[in-house]
Write a structure and sequence with these properties.
Length: 435
């Protein structure tokens, strides 16, 4: 194997380790249709190679639980390591048969779910990959590959960064002058940003599991509860609902921690008179929910908390009312900011109001104008610093965020997480049912 071909092999990620069971994304998602749509988008002189990531190391000889790279999951439905997918619009000859889809994966072993049939291509052993890659790269002009999650690694011993991906691309392109190696992400995002009915159904299921968890937390919340206890209630309900796990680390922030949008420690004791921001999401067959609710630790909002909360809720409802195909993402942000500014809280706005939702919690997609089939979040928030002496003392330290998951429809929007309680009267009623 030449150095250049080895560089491509490394870039395509076929040097993999670890083992894991086969898991196929559930539901009625047509992955063959996803592949056909992807092939139709690609230039005839291009090819795409997507691979499973290495088994992520936690510490010593212990791995994190495996989760497939999202573009590969979208095109294959396989949540297992040691998988490589190759898409070739012009086709690749295998025993006098022109094949456009090649899937490199080991056959299942005892205790593993069987690989599903590949109706639109050929299943090959991973050992065949080097020879086929070698033949392929000499005849295509563009090779789309996974974007590395880490652009470089710091070589602390020699005091310099190692640009692994950049160097691999450069070496391959020098060997094959006609070849350009590109990130597959933007191209796949053109498909991923609009969800099919089957994909939306999985997001609904993820939201249902999230709803169950947030309701358990509301009932369990009382002065003296630890943030991790509320997290445990939430994640227990998700697991009981059949979720793969969490689509991101659960955020449960009480008191001053409610002011930190991406707080993840979850160790503090919640005290009477405070609020708790719970930003959580289950993952169902790879598809994410992302819902945030803010609740009063004592079971009832104080007057200042109520005022801030109602301001955030009005801003959210204004944004949801504005959602329809053709509206720009900037308009959504401006709508939320206008509502918060009108109430005098614009200084305490820290982030944008929306993002795509799907296989990733911050999903792939272009953020220019809305299109039907997109699933987005709507999450305004107000965060008043504890030490801000420009506001009355009773408002200091109040953090409120409300987030829902919304489907853009042909003529407006459907709030997929509408069942998760967020009106003050509903939250306070639920919180009366203490365990």
């Amino acid at each position: 194997m030449t150095r250049a071909l080895r560089a491509l092999w490394l870039l395509a990620g076929i040097l993999i380790s670890g083992a894991g069971t086969v898991a196929v994304a559930e539901g009625t998602i047509d992955f063959a249709a996803h592949r056909a749509q992807m092939l139709a988008l690609m230039d005839s002189g291009s090819a795409m190679v997507l691979r499973s990531p290495d088994m992520p190391m936690r510490n010593a000889d212990v791995n994190y639980r495996f989760r497939q790279e999202s573009n590969l999951l979208y095109l294959s439905g396989l949540n297992r390591p040691q998988v490589t997918l190759m898409l070739v619009p012009l086709g690749f000859m295998l025993r006098d048969t022109l094949v456009h889809v090649l899937l490199f994966a080991h056959e299942s072993t005892d205790g593993e779910d069987p690989l599903p049939p590949l109706s639109d291509g050929r299943l090959l052993a991973p050992e065949r990959f080097p020879e086929i890659l070698s033949a392929l790269v000499s005849r295509v002009t563009t090779l789309y590959v996974n974007q590395s999650g880490i652009a470089f690694r710091q070589d602390w011993l020699n005091g310099k960064p190692q640009w692994l991906e950049r160097d691999s691309r450069s070496e391959a392109e020098q060997k094959y002058p006609q070849l350009k190696v590109k990130n597959a992400g933007p191209l796949v995002a053109r498909l991923r940003q609009r969800k099919s009915a089957a994909e939306v159904d999985l997001i609904r299921k993820a939201i249902g599991a999230t709803d169950a968890g947030l309701r358990r937390a509301m009932v369990s919340c009382t002065p003296g509860v630890r943030e991790y206890e509320l997290q445990a209630e939430i994640e227990y309900a998700m697991a009981r609902s059949g979720a793969w796990g969490q689509s991101f680390p659960s955020i449960v922030g009480s008191g001053p921690n409610a002011l930190i949008p991406h707080y993840e420690l979850n160790r503090r004791t919640a005290r009477a008179g405070e609020v708790v921001v719970m930003d959580v999401g289950a993952e169902m067959s790879g598809y994410a929910a992302d819902v945030t609710r803010t609740i009063p630790v004592s079971g009832r909002f104080s007057a200042p908390q109520r005022k801030v909360y109602e301001t955030v809720l009005r801003a959210q409802r204004a944004v949801i009312a504005a959602i329809r195909p053709g509206i720009s993402w900037k308009t959504l942000d401006a709508t939320a900011r206008a509502a918060i500014k009108e109430a005098g809280y614009d200084r305490f706005w820290l982030h944008s109001v929306s993002h795509h939702l799907g296989l990733d919690v911050h999903d792939a997609g272009v953020m220019d104008t809305l299109r039907d089939g997109m699933v987005i979040t709507v999450e305004p928030g107000i965060y008043i610093p504890v030490a801000d002496t420009t506001v009355s003392a009773e408002y200091r330290g109040i953090g409120v965020r409300i987030e829902d998951d919304v489907l853009v429809t042909g003529d407006g929007a459907e709030v997929l997480s509408a069942r998760v309680p967020k009106d003050i009267v509903d939250i306070e009623r639920i919180m009366k049912r203490k365990r």
